Amino acid sequence: MIENADAPTAYEYSIGGADGAALRLFEDGSVAIEGTDGAYLGGVVAPWAYDAAGTPVKTWYEVKGSSLVQVVAHDAGSYAYPIVADPWLGINLFSWITVDSYNSQPRVNLQPSPWGAAQWASIGGQVVMNTAGWDEAWNWNSTVRSGLSKDSQRQQFECHSLGSPFAGTWNLEKFRPNRTVHWSHGVAVHHCNWTTPNQY
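Request: output the structure for the sequence above.
Response:
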């Protein structure tokens, strides 16, 4: 919280560190935290800042080594104090993942976390959900892993992460056939719940 006009305009947060994590800044202002192998470790949504009257204050991130700096340009205008600016760090892309049965076959249910939804909306976020999100699901536990045993379920996951992310809970149903035509064909009709390998 920025209390008054005499407060600094730059606020530094140490995010990377000894483990070699690196910060990657995207054009929309969001930041990915990546391991030395390039694996997704977490991220920070695009910055925001509002004054006491609800007026947005210009703000952006800068990366300094393993630190993230949020610059809040409260000295560039007339604002009502205090000003609130709070970086939102997220790690888990899913709030929960469960396995049940549907049509007598396993169904894996995934609920995107608020962070996952915010991450999806950022530049590159769809790719993060489709790659790091799948890794998170696969490594959730052995029950989930054993429930994800069909190519169709990976195709359904890709459909949700790239084509239909705001469908609520993502249901990856084993009984659905493997696609022989890309899932994007007819997605407006099947909504990732196709019943044939090449149509809807």
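The chain has a mean pLDDT of 88.
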